[in-house]
Amino acid sequence: MCGVLVLVSLLAPPGVDGGQRPAAGVAPIQLSAARLPDGAPVPILDGKITEDAWLIVAPYSTFTQTDPIEGAPASERTEVRVLFDKTHLYIGVICFDSDPSKIVVSQNRRDADLSETDAILIVLDTFNDNQNAFVFGTNPIGIEYDGQVSGEGQTGGISANVSGLGGSQRGTISSFNPNWDGDWKVKTAITERGWEAEMAIPLKTLRYPVGTDRTWGFNVKRNIRRKNEQVFLSPVARGFDIYRVSSAAKLTGLDLPARHDLKITPYVLGSVNKDYTVAKDQVVSRVNPFSDRNVGIDAKWGVRPNLTADFTLNTDFAQVEADEEQVNLTRFDLFFPEKRPFFLENASVFQFGAPQQVDLFFSRRIGLSATGSSGLPIDINGGARLSGKIGSYNIGLLEMQTDSELDQQTGTLVTSANNFGVFRVQREVGRSSFGAILVNRKGTGEYAGANDFNRAYGIDANLQVTKNSKLFAYVAGTTSPQAKGGTDHSERVFYNFTNNLWQASGGYSQVGANFNPEVGYLPRKGYRHPEFRVFFQPQPKQWPWIRRISPHVSYDAYYGLADGQLQSSAEHFHFFEIDPRQGGRFGTFVNRNEDRPIANFTVFNAGGKKVVIPPGFYTWYQLGNEYLSNPSAVISTTLRWKHGGFYDGDYDSYETALNWRAGARLVGSFGWTRQNVDMPYGNFHTDLVPVKVGYAFSPLASIQALVQYNNQSSLLTSNVRLALLNRSGTGLFVVYNDRRDTTDFNPQETLGRSFIVKFTRLFDF
């Protein structure tokens, strides 16, 4: 695989532009970037658009609403200016406001949620391909928010139709990756005009085809939160968002030099860990920076302006936030998102299949003993990745090597050492794409067997059928040793339609009984799966307090491949849902579920109580009500109640969450979900209580605490994380973790504790 990395880098022709021009029709809005003369003073980043460099550029100021009144002029003026020189792109934005005292600011932390605050978001389609883009955003107090869009916000049939959601550590694989951390700067200021922002983005942070007089796709979204108004420089139809790259304006006149980029990020780590579950009292201290696993390095090399290689040695993820606990009352594994930064950058390039149903590659299989929250870290010796664009081809190559792992309590083997390799390629044709993937796992080292391997492979297509509809399809196979099922296959076809009134999707997938993507995510196998969803979203003008009415229905069913019998189904009827003008929603819904377990399965086993559901065919209904208040308010709440059946028993659940913020620096939330289940085989209840508190000293310095109680796992867990960032997500991290058993709670029965200090530093050449 490493040889392939070198070969592809050598074959990549410099300056190839695989961009596709927009389809014939209305000409896109044109803007021109102004070049700063050599030696001319660059803008001073102070958050005020007052320097001469800005004032000699004619601004673009015609913005159009998408919400609340599609096509109407923006209620507040916005001015955008774009400058560039040999090294940087400069973007200046003035967000005029008739009453600056009412500007809403909800958070002050890098990559924090921008959907419930005054904010601007900018997309740069640097290949002018109408599909992929970089995203940069900020709010009135100058946080850094960045990410990557692929496939216009639609990959695998999943749409990203709300921009500005929280970034770092969210991690779910999708068409928008908010976990890409670029090296750039932004300064903002609230002035008598409203609020203003200056961005300086190094050209080497971006990928692009070199040359003179280049054209990029370019769009700007402004969120005027107190009016719940979203406006765009280049209009975007309701039902979509700024990720609709084909709706972007065209930024012309760019002279783009070759991109010489080498970033090296070493780390040094010290930690003290104690596992109270190990029979022999044991404290593991890692304070010598030159011992195993206490030093490591990541490197990023811009092979070409459109191609980047990443390398990692002695990979460590000590600074990553803890998983959020979930309660599982099903027969299947739950999905926990990837949160480790190395895997999240360009994650959408490697996505293949049906997200969270059939994923041929799920990076959480690398370096963790299990994909759930109980997964223990497995040492990653190192790895390499190549990703980017060659002409009209998107490519991704990844190779990682993990170490073997022994159980500390028993000394038994958890896993042998493994080598992981992934090759992904996509050919873009207009707004469609065709691709292939190969995923390989091979056991290595002294503990690996002679026939320890697994391969997954497939081809897929994302076809733009009409302006508002897309067809997704794949055919995939896996090959394992005969003892693990040999070779089997899976297929899917899925159609999605979106306009300003309707969102409708449906599809059919099939997974063989021996289909086995070991480096992927597959909660069940041996089924046929029809599915559909329909959303109707009118905006009744006769009731000004209503933003929209959003009734919707969905249906998912699984039928056995061999016998054709229904295995399970879920039907959701949400005929009454209203979104108020200021945000939030409320409504009533009905769920209908069917399930046919073929063996006993344990639904609850905690606190000395075990409840087992026997085989059979079960049908039950649940009625629910929910209320979500305006999430941009100083205090907001979520209330949700469900009542009905559960298999052949009775079910009630109550969910509440309280969110608050004290200015822009202090935010917190408290949640409690109680589920009461009364069955012939036993009664039980579950409690899930998460408490989050975060304080931002500045946009780059924050402390966060997450305390969670889950009676299903009998655990009380704590994670406290202090981050003092410098550039591009690097800096000093101090992390404390604590796990306690609540079955017979006392401080002496703590299961484990760890205290970690990690320092990373970015060196840019």
Could you explain the architecture of this structure?
The protein is mainly beta and 765 residues long. Among the domains are: 13-256, Immunoglobulin-like (Sandwich), CATH 2.60.40.1190; 307-525, no CATH class. The protein has 3 helices and 49 strands. It has a 24-stranded antiparallel β-barrel. Strands 1, 3, 6, 7, 8, 11, 14, 15 and 16 form a 9-stranded mixed β-sheet that branches. Residues 1-24, 167-173 and 281-291 have low confidence and may be disordered.
Secondary structure elements and their pairing?
Layout: H1 2-11, E1 30-32, E2 34-35, H2 52-55, E3 64-67, E4 78-84, E5 88-96, E6 119-125, E7 133-138, E8 145-149, E9 154-155, E10 158-159, E11 176-177, E12 185-191, E13 194-202, E14 211-224, E15 229-232, E16 249-256, E17 262-275, E18 283-286, E19 295-304, E20 307-315, H3 341-344, E21 353-354, E22 358-359, E23 380-390, E24 393-402, E25 405-406, E26 413-415, E27 417-429, E28 432-444, E29 453-466, E30 469-479, E31 487-498, E32 502-511, E33 527-536, E34 546-549, E35 552-560, E36 566-580, E37 585-595, E38 601-606, E39 609-613, E40 618-628, E41 635-646, E42 649-662, E43 666-679, E44 682-698, E45 701-710, E46 715-725, E47 731-741, E48 750-760, E49 763-764
Parallel strand pairs: 1-16, 2-4
Antiparallel strand pairs: 3-15, 4-5, 5-13, 6-7, 6-14, 7-8, 8-11, 9-10, 12-13, 14-15, 14-16, 17-18, 17-19, 17-48, 17-49, 19-20, 20-23, 21-22, 23-24, 24-27, 25-26, 27-28, 28-29, 29-30, 30-31, 31-32, 32-33, 33-35, 34-36, 35-36, 36-37, 37-40, 38-39, 40-41, 41-42, 42-43, 43-44, 44-45, 45-46, 46-47, ...
